[in-house]
Amino acid sequence: MKKSRIVALLVAVLALLAPVVPTAAAASDPGLTTPLPPPKPFREYVALGDSWTADVVILNTDGFPATDHAPMGCAQSHRNYPKLVAKAIGAKTFRDASCGSATTDDFTHPQTGLPTGGANPPQFKRLTKRTDLVTVGIGGNDAGLAAAGIDCLNVLPIEVPLPLIELFPEIPIPFIGGHLPPLGGCKHKYTKGGVDRLARNIRKAEPKLVRSLRQIHRISPHARILVVDYMRVIPDHGCYPLVPAVDKDMRYISAKFDQLNAMLKRVSRKGVAELVSTAKRTRGHHLCSGARERYAETLGLSVNDLAIGVPAHPNSAGARAQAASVLDYLRAHPK
Predict the structure, then answer these.
(1) Over 70: is that where the pLDDT of 166 sits?
(2) What is the pLDDT of residue 22?
(3) Residues 283, 258: contact at Cβ < 8 Å?
(4) What pLDDT is stored for residue 165 in this prediction?
(5) Strand 133-137 versus strand 93-96 pairing type
(6) Segments making up each domain of the chain, as ranges
(7) Most buried residue, 120, 157, 268, 305, by most Cβ within 10 Å?
(8) Does domain 28-45+78-158+184-295+305-332 have CATH number 3.30.1490.100?
């Protein structure tokens, strides 16, 4: 079967699975439709980052992930925030290097092990001396927050006794995916012995991000560098079955995202970059919000717009909010 027919079939399945709900209207948001005013248009815009920049998607009404700028395995959405920003500012040249699972190591080395094979070239390869705008959205994978979030999942709506958390995850059970069901306990796991390992990871990632920003300055000396932080979409409570985790674990992982964003603010200052905060646009649109209100998905099926995405990652409404945050900042801080 030809690829185009496969895409059409899968999109039809999407339409059948999803409820008939009007999608969020990007056109009504002036932050996405009005080009930036003169006198300083951007000639060459490069986007760097991880899955929250790629706004990773498996399938939507555009088909499979975009491959104009990176391999399909990076899962770039055709509607991620860099592409929306590039269109709004009228960039003559645009390159989107973002890729799911990326760390700062992938700025200078090829990112291999992508789910569809191949490799994403070093993200810095997209930078040139002519680049005059760079957005950077990275740090979560350097700090290990993605893996920690998975450890918070709990099939039971109650806190599991510590002995079970200690003993069960390593016992194989062939008929349940090879392992026992997730039992939560991420706060206990990452703070055992009185040491907050995620907080330590965030601190250790800070100098790596500062070095990365300084490298960007050396490669593209005339570029404005905007560090885009992580949206406020991680709630401080669970909501079964959408977010199957107990409140204590969710409060912990939500606090780590706040610490990560505080670190990105420090990094921006030390790396002579500018911080774009997404808080104003995204607070109150967390994973436990309604289907049309949330800016990140839980189970992957999204009605903003119809898509099958990656759980706990931005949906298209979230991408529009990210883009609007960047555009708001550029209008408020012209140079």
Answers:
(1) no
(2) 38
(3) no
(4) 57
(5) unpaired
(6) 28-45+78-158+184-295+305-332
(7) 120
(8) no
